[in-house]
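Try this one yourself first.
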């Protein structure tokens, strides 16, 4: 489904909090949000250093007077403008998400927030209620869900092709932090600092990605879980760099999840496998254009992105079959859906029909997962109820 024509009459006026010079995640958001011309970056509070943030924003083409020292100043100034911002992305460290989200929603803005949405469940529930009250979209950036073959796997489960789901295997286990890299890497340093990162490191940073995708594909709700976590790099304690989770879903299904930053030799190691009574599917982000499919009594197959046999929700492609699509394409797919959901233009709902995007409910589930894992591990890996 190539889309070269404009989906909206005008792009949404968009701003960022965080994501300044040298931020990989900031670049990912900017590339994705503006890829389809559905959002235009017009303002930002890019950096805790106001002068540095202004210089960076100006280099991006943002008017210097709309490069603000902090988010509160930006929201107030933009609200006074006839051409003020409509959407804001929050790409700051974890401990700031709640305050910025609350201020943005209170200012009547749509929001895209990095995960975890908050560091406590009460805060996530408050934001969910505020988004509903203000009639605003609060999206959480689970960018990997933008891959077409993830949506194919989800559709196959929904249509019963795998039968009753029995097992969900999830992992996001890389090896880049097997040594104490944070001593020379500020981007890792705050992630292993409890006051900034919250009660977990790899569970909240990468484990929530595979947890959310396991839920998305399987459609299952979690009943309880138990977690074992370790700090193999001792200076990271009490935060973990390796965690193993057992999950009991409502009904009869079970799940396992491995989140790790010390899996030496692994480039990324993000895989989700869902096994049902009649078949299984497996997706791996290092080979995102393929989905392994095995149905009982038939040889294993590989479904390829961009082909006519896929479900309609999986044909949201930017390039034809046989050409590889990747990380930036997946993020742009998610941002396209965010923009359509946020727009008040009548045609936006038509373009969004049949498409899925990660909402505040996914963010709330991710916060619960992070908190319940920490609770279980700190109590000797006891089973804890999810809700």
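Now uncover the answer:
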């Amino acid at each position: 489904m190539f889309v070269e024509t404009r989906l909206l009459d005008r792009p949404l006026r968009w701003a960022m909090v965080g994501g300044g010079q040298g931020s990989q995640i900031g670049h990912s958001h900017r590339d994705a949000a503006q890829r389809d011309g559905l959002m235009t970056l017009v303002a930002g509070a890019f950096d805790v250093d106001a002068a540095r943030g202004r210089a960076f924003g100006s280099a991006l083409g943002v008017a210097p007077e709309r490069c603000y020292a902090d988010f509160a100043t930006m929201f107030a100034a933009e609200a006074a403008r006839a051409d003020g911002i409509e959407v804001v992305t929050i790409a700051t460290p974890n401990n700031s998400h709640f305050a910025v989200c609350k201020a943005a929603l209170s200012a009547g803005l749509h929001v895209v927030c990095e995960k975890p949405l908050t560091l406590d469940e009460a805060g996530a529930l408050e934001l969910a209620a505020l988004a509903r009250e203000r009639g605003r979209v609060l999206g959480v950036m689970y960018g990997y869900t933008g891959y077409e073959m993830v949506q194919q796997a989800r559709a196959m489960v929904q249509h019963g092709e795998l039968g009753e789901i029995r097992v969900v295997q999830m992992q996001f286990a890389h090896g880049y932090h097997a040594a104490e890299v944070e001593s020379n890497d500020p981007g890792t340093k705050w992630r292993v600092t409890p006051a900034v990162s919250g009660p977990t490191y790899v569970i909240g940073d990468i484990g929530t990605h595979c947890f959310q995708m396991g839920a998305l594909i399987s459609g299952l709700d979690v009943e309880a879980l138990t977690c074992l976590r370790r700090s193999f790099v001792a200076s990271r304690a009490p935060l973990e760099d390796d965690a193993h989770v057992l999950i009991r879903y409502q009904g009869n299904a079970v799940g396992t999840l491995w989140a790790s930053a010390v899996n030496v030799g692994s480039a990324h190691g993000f895989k989700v496998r869902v096994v049902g009574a009649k078949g299984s599917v497996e997706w791996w982000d290092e080979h995102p254009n393929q989905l392994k499919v095995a149905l009982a009594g038939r040889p294993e197959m590989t479904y390829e992105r961009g082909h006519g046999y896929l479900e309609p929700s999986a044909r949201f492609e930017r390039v034809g079959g046989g050409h590889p699509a990747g990380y930036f394409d997946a993020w742009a797919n998610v941002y396209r859906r965010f923009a359509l959901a946020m727009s008040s233009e009548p045609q936006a709902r038509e373009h969004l029909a049949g498409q899925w995007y990660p909402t505040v409910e996914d963010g709330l589930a991710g916060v619960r997962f992070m908190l319940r894992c920490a609770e279980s591990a700190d109590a000797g890996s006891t089973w804890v109820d999810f809700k």
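Discussion: Residues 128 and 345 are 24 Å apart (CA to CA). The chain has a mean pLDDT of 96.
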